[in-house]
Amino acid sequence: MVELKDILSAQQNIAGKVHRTPLMPATTLGNRVNMNLYLKAEVFQKTGSFKPRGAVNKLSQLTDEERKRGVIGLSSGNHAQGLAYAASLFGIAATLVMPRTTQPNKIEATKGYGAEVVLTEGYPKAEETCMQLQKERNLVLVHPYNDPYIVAGQGTTGLEILEDLPSVDVVFVPIGGGGLISGIAAAIKSNQPSVKVIGVEAVGAPAMRLSLQQKKVVHLETTNTVADGLSPPDVGEINLALAQKYIDDVVLVSDDELTEAMWTVIERCKIVVEPSGAAGAAAVLFRKTSLPAGSQVVCVLSGGNINRSRLASLASKE
User: Fold this and answer.
1) Among 112, 113, 198, 213, which has the highest number of CB atoms less than 10 A from its own CB?
2) CA torsion, points 201, 206, 207, 210, in degrees to nearest 10?
């Protein structure tokens, strides 16, 4: 179980290697729902998402022998960029296995940080290829979410929220594999148990919600959502255990709600966010949970890695 001391240690490990992202008021959006709304802008993080926090913390723990071997990861985009960036800081060779359907900008950015990219047909094939290469090359596997050092690194986001807004009442966090919310929830609840932490999943990828209901990790045979960052077929065992202990609720948002929230943040807040990054805003704007008027609410904008063609395709669906 990841504890507060692990997250505080991660905060020291990543200092100076990642950005301390701003907590920005979103007055217009808040007025719509009669709340004091703030956006934790991880879109301004290194590589455009929260992922370097965990990756840098994880790689800081590797032995010299492990660093010489190199690392490997599996990703539909943001973890790949985060791990590639972290590896470049430590002079570690990185291999990233990615589905061929990954947005081209995410693939090119991963290569730009110096990583070797291996493309496969579909996510299941990517998983198989990743494990095969890990064994053949004796590489260190860096899991995108089911790893205590990854979780502790992501949890530093929660520490920053509390530092910037001690009076926060509720924090909404997007859920993909569960690394971000499990870290944030552990950080926040260990400091201020009264703060509610609410996860947000896509209707077409409710792995955490189902896992909490069934009290075990539930694997989804298929996922169907416009938000690739919310589409892992399952959550990690570590992430589920922390969610069971700390998370107050998990709500679901539709693709239409994700898209509408994304465009609202872009147009009214002037922040480019990808659909998965807008999940928290979607939950607030479409009132997925009942909150007292005037509540101090934070939505974590987890990522902004979207290219112009993807934006155009989503604009046509308005």
Assistant:
1) 198
2) 120
Q: Does domain 4-49+148-315 have CATH number 3.20.20.70?
A: no
Choosing from 17, 40, 51, 106, which is the catalytic residue? 51
Active site residue 302: yes
- Clarify whether 51 is annotated catalytic: yes
Going by C-alpha positions, the residue among 82, 102, 108, 83 that lies closest to residue 93 is: 83
What single-letter amino acid sits at 96? Answer: L
Q: Tell me, yes or no, if the two domains 4-49+148-315 and 52-141 fold the same way.
A: yes
pTM for the full predicted model: 0.96
Interval 43-82: pLDDT, tens: 999 999 999 999 999 999 999 999 999 999 999 889 999 9
How do the domains of the chain map onto residue ranges? 4-49+148-315, 52-141
Amino acid type, 12? Q
How would you class 149 by CB atoms within 10 Å of its CB: exposed for 0-12, middle for 13-18, buried for 19 or more?
buried
Task: Determine contact, residues 21/44, Cβ cutoff 8 Å.
Answer: yes
**Three-state SS for 170?**
strand
Tokens 């990690």 correspond to what residue?
236
Amino acid at 201: E
Q: Which residues contact 23 (CB under 8 A, 6 or more apart)?
A: 38, 39, 40, 41, 160, 161, 164, 165, 298
Contact 305, 109 (CB under 8 A): yes
Tell me which residue has tokens 């090119």: 108
In CATH, what is the architecture of 52-141?
3-Layer(aba) Sandwich (3.40)
How many Å apart are CA 166 and CA 129, to the nearest integer? 45
CA distance 115 to 127: 18
The predicted-structure confidence for 200-248, as pLDDT tens digits, reads as follows: 999 999 999 999 999 999 999 999 999 989 999 999 999 999 999 999 9
Report d(CA 244, CA 193) in Å as an integer.
14
